[in-house]
Amino acid sequence: MFQVDENDQVIGAITKAQANSHPEVFHREVRVILFDEKRRILIQRRSPNKKVYPGVWAEPCQGHVSYGLSYEETAHKELQEELGFDTSLKLIEKTLIKFPNETHFAAWFVGWYRGEKIKPEPAEVADYKFVDCQELAQLAPQMIPSSWAKLWELQCSSAASASALV
Question: Is the pLDDT higher at 142 or at 161?
Fold first, then answer.
């Protein structure tokens, strides 16, 4: 994986274990958000075997940026690995996220789900479903906080417009 500085400039390579256990070491991740034709958002329940946030609901896929790959290449790779399909994606923003055990830049991508067959990878995904604002609000206590906040912003805030994003 890439190790980056506070400006997201590459300064070296690190292992996933280092990235996930040292908050002073910055790295890169991607987050992919998908809307369906009803403007619902696809979410996934992370596998109970995941080391970080096992069994909680989150955006449909996320992952570390492997050394040598771009944010966009990683977003497509993670979508294919975790859900078994790919679609057009658009980068909407990059944010710095700090957890007690890690710090990373998250590149947020959005796209449209157009009926592709979803084939979840069991090691990554325990369940998935499309949710509207009401369901998303009910799931808030069961979600990764940064994931829930971004999903709410994109789907439920009055300023959000899915069609303008993708």
Answer: 142
Q: Which residue has the tokens 């449209």?
A: 112
**Residues in a beta bridge with 146:** none
Cα–Cα distance measured from residue 52 to residue 117, given in angstroms and rounded to the nearest whole number: 27
For 138-152, write each residue's pLDDT tens digit.
988 888 887 888 888
Which region, left, alpha or beta, applies to residue 20 given φ > 0 means left and ψ of -120 to 50 means alpha? alpha
Contact 108, 31 (CB under 8 A): yes
Residues 92-104, buried b or exposed e (16+ Cβ, 10 A)?
beeeebeeeebbb
If one counts the domains in the chain, the total is: 1
CA distance 20 to 51: 10
Query: Can you read off the two tokens belonging to residue 51?
Result: 């080391």
On the CB side of 103, CA atoms within 13 Å amount to 13
CATH assignment of the domain containing 114: 3.90.79.10
Can you give the pTM of this predicted structure?
A: 0.88
Q: What is the signed CA dihedral for 22, 47, 80, 23, rounded to 10 degrees?
A: -10
Q: Which domain holds residue 48?
A: 2-165
120 and 128 Cβ atoms separated by less than 8 Å: yes
Q: Give the integer Cα–Cα distance in Å for 128 and 32.
A: 14
